[in-house]
Amino acid sequence: MTIIAGGLIIVGGLFYGLGGLGILRMPDVYNRAQAGTKATTLGTLSTILGLMILHPDWIPRLLLIMVFIVVTNPIGSSTLLRNAFIQGVKPVEGTLMDDFSLPSRKEDQA
Amino acid sequence: MKARKWLGLFVASLVVWILLAGATWEELILGTIVSAVVAFVFGQSSLYVLNAKWLIRMLLFLIFYLPVFVIELIRANIDVMVRVLHPKLPINPGFVKVPTKLKGDQAKLMLANSITLTPGTITLDADENHLYVHWIDVQRVDGNVNPLAVSEPFERVLGRIFS
Amino acid sequence: MMEIIFFVLVALGLASGGYRLMKGPSAFDRIVGLDTVNIILVGVLLVISHLLQSSLYLDIALVFAILAFMETIVFSKYIGGAK
């Protein structure tokens, strides 16, 4: 059981490292956020699963952290990329954008 | 109607309290008092109403949707891993407008979050009938972009749960 | 043994995140770097709570996760948003 838990935690660390490598190597903000968000979310999930096996009495609090990360991490990067697009951050050469534009909102008119 | 709003917030706060502090008698009593105060103060601005329909939906959601989601999440990460470690960085990005038939804020939030966490796509924005998506590897069918490939696996399950 | 491998891999992620945080061409690149570093630090706090056998660090990790989310939202709303 300890070996499985250790393996899960190491897989979590592997995904953290890959997420970092992803935001280092990708060419523009949009692709960087893709790599960063996905890899760190699964990394956290895997680390928490490993800790749940090691410490069964911590399960409620770990569950709370897990749900919070899975719900909020995508929302954060969506907001970030939406604002980057509105501010006109250029995507990398060769990005397909045939007349793509975001819907305008009332709070953007300030 | 108003009492229902308070009840939903009260139950949610109490569940979080129990998860954080454990379920001994002292904690339960203190948690009930604190949750009641929170529900009383913030009950006006709560959006969720607790009733049997909502509970059944959540149960269906946990049973049928979670396995699909976890499998897609793992696939997404293997996909990202291959792309990041590949020496030539094989990406073919694009912005795509994805039509969706789902109604209701909860269903659309779930769909947008799921799209963000699954292979190669991230949601930028949503309105009544479309999601605005950045796609890391645009797939084409006969030279045309095929936006339905993004949302298809989730939309089937979510449509059945939230209708 | 497990901790050493975990922390070596995490150091790789933190170093790349920190590089992007300092060097990123646009402000949004920096926020992406900050977000990644924050989530990685939540994982590090969780593993530290296992190493020290103290559940106190779990509460710190939870609060840190909440603050990380707030940081991302507030920074991106402050820099971006209205054009």
Question: Care to give the gist of this entry?
Answer:
The complex is a heterotrimer of chains A (110), B (163) and C (83). Chain A has 110 residues and is mainly alpha-helical. Chain A is 71% helix and 0% strand.
Determine the N-to-C terminus distance of chain C.
51 Å
β-sheet strand percentage of chain B:
5-15%
Radius of gyration of chain C: 15 Å
Amount of helix of chain B: 55-70%
Give an overview in words.
Chain A is mostly helical and about 110 residues long. Chain A has one domain (about 1-90). Chain A has 3 helices and no strands. Chain A has helices spanning about 1-25, 30-55, 60-85. The mean pLDDT of chain A is about 80. In chain B, the strands form 2 sheets. In chain B, strands 1-3-2 form a 3-stranded antiparallel sheet, with helices on one face. Chain B has a two-stranded antiparallel ribbon with strand order 4-5. Chain B has 5 helices and 5 strands; from the N terminus they run αααβαββββα. In chain B, a hairpin with a 3-residue loop joins strand 2 and strand 3. Chain B has about 160 residues and is an alpha+beta fold. In chain B, about 30% of the residues are buried. The longest helix of chain B has about 35 residues, at about 50-85. Chain B has 2 domains: about 1-45; about 55-160, no CATH class. Chain B starts with a helix and ends with a helix. With about 80 residues, chain C is mostly helical. Chain C starts with a helix and ends with a helix. The mean pLDDT of chain C is about 85. The longest helix of chain C has 25 residues, at about 25-50. Chain C contains 3 helices and no strands. The relative contact order of chain C is 0.13. Chain C has a domain at about 25-85. Chain C has helices at about 1-25, 25-50, 55-80. Chains in contact: A-B, A-C. At the A-C interface, helix 1, helix 2 and helix 3 of A face helix 1, helix 2 and helix 3 of C.
